[in-house]
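Case study 2.
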Amino acid sequence: PAAPAQAVPTVTAPVSVPAKLIAEEDMLYRLGPGDVIEVRVFGKPEMSREYRIDNLGRMRPLFIQEELAVTCLTEMQLARLMEDKYRKYLRSPVVDVFVKDYQSQPVAVMGAVMQPSRFKLQRRIRLLELLSQAGGPSGSAGTTINLIRTKEYDHCMPHQAIKKLSDAPVDPNAPGEPFDGQLITLNLRDVSRGRPEANIYVEPGDVISVPEADQVFLTGGVMRPGPIPLRQALRLSEAIGMAGGFFTDVSKKDIHVSRQIANSTQRETIKVDYDAIEKKKADDPILQPGDLIEVRSSTARGIGRSLLGIIAPTAAQLPMRIVRPY
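Prediction:
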């Protein structure tokens, strides 16, 4: 049949998935921006072709005068959605969907591992298996693993929300900008033993760093932001000094120390008045492995000194490998 008359395009939301099927489908690859897919319509070669999912996670199939929102769908879910749309033109359509080029789920493993690499995920994978794909920890590995989870690839969180680093409201007029993502520090031994609370699923965009020693991280208005090794007890003032000191426009009264809660992937935020520390009116806190110190500064925000911005350039230089389906 002929294609319908031209109409103003609309966007169709993804098909809903029965709750009891969610767990079964968690291991399947979910489509995202940049992926190239092949759509085959049985007995209709003229309706079969390849499509690239756009940056908004949409595609417009032949003969369908609307854009389909396909981000987070599996191949089978998209096939069922297209069958439903094609019933307007065909009797009992049969559609198959295959991913031809996986582009939407990059991750990186770096630091003290045998084969630091970037990976394109073609299925869901847990942290322990990804570490094994990178050759496992090297002999110089410390006791922790740091997982930096950005919201840049937040286009597909199938069945869970990524909790922001702090739930406290942020004053939009305050100087600086907090790290918009999540830093998770895990015990390397717990991950190696496959303990469920440590052997978590890796998400698109994750950067996994295995340090040679325990670390703390400084971001924002310091001269040299980034990781600092914890080779002995380290106080906040010492870490600031090792990072070269403050920018001139920082708010010393509002330094945030984000610390992971024991036996959890969640974090608590400790506010520190550094002016009071300098005046000997407050204790100079001892830092713990995995602490993230945020020093708010409008200058730092202008040059993009986020945690991911510091580490990502190094990750971009790593070789690319593929994590294929079973």
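DSSP finds eight helices and 17 strands in the chain.
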